[in-house]
Specification:
With 236 residues, the protein is α/β, with parallel strands linked by helices. The chain has eight helices and six strands; from the N terminus they run αβααββααβαβαβα. The protein has a single domain, classed as von Willebrand factor, type A domain (Rossmann fold, 3-Layer(aba) Sandwich), CATH 3.40.50. Helices cover 44% and strands 19% of the residues. The longest helix has 25 residues. The protein starts with a helix and ends in a 6-residue tail after the last helix.
Length: 236
């Protein structure tokens, strides 16, 4: 990684640490132990139009309304997970739309779903800087105000990185810190995107890549993906 890229990521790290520290102080959550801290990193780059963005948000919301997701969370050792939602596009656009939320009951999950239904598009459209998104999500996870043995990021995208640092470098750094990077490949533009994700993005403990054939298939795919993440090793 070049000097310029290092400076960018040092800046991003400081920015996200400030954001998450402020959020944690307000929540008073430092002593809470969760089964998993999960960052949902949603692609809002040029290739994602308004309808496709809404399908992503509503798809995640629908998943958190389902009883099998509620049951999976309660079957964890501590019966709760923490989730944050980040939107991303170019190198400078990674915005936390929904800071850390503790989900420890069906009611909490449904309330979280309600926020997702109303979540606007926050990050501007731009090129696909997947490496920068991974770095930002990793920074959020490292600064999470919870105790947990599972830190996971969920990278949803319909395209390959076309700007910024290479994803392999970021993946290897995050995996060395035992952060799991899972992928959800939306195949409407790149039929082999899942292969690309497995080779260059997915990493860390028990990582996997799941496929949605297009955005209409996203709702079912994100449900399956979240269920697999929540019921991961040591959770239920």
């Amino acid at each position: 990684m070049g000097k310029g890229a290092d400076n960018i990521y040092k800046f991003l790290t400081a920015l996200f640490l400030c954001l998450i520290t402020s959020s944690s102080q307000n929540a008073g959550a430092k002593a809470i132990v969760v089964d998993m801290a999960l960052v949902l990193a949603v692609d809002v780059s040029y290739s994602v139009d308004a309808t496709e963005f809404r399908l992503q948000m509503d798809g995640i919301a629908e998943a958190f309304r389902q009883s099998d997701i509620h049951k999976a969370i309660k079957q964890g050792i501590h019966g709760r997970i923490a989730v944050a939602v980040m939107q991303w596009s170019d190198e400078k656009s990674q915005i936390v739309g929904i800071p850390w939320v503790i989900i420890d009951s069906p009611l909490a999950a449904v309330k979280f779903a309600g926020r997702l239904y109303n979540e606007p598009r926050r990050a501007p459209q731009g090129p696909t800087a997947t490496g920068a998104a991974m770095w930002a999500a990793g920074t959020i996870l490292k600064a999470a105000p919870f105790q947990t043995y599972r830190r996971v990021m969920d990278i949803s995208s319909d395209g390959r990185r076309n700007v910024g640092v290479r994803t392999r470098k970021i993946r290897d750094r995050l995996a060395a810190d035992k952060i799991t990077i899972n992928g959800l490949a939306i195949l409407n533009e790149w039929p082999t995107l899942d292969i690309y994700m497995r080779a260059t993005i997915a990493g860390g403990p028990f990582n996997f890549v799941m496929v949605a054939n297009d955005y209409t298939d996203y709702i079912k795919a994100i449900h399956r993906k979240l269920l697999k993440e929540i019921t991961g090793p040591g959770v239920s």
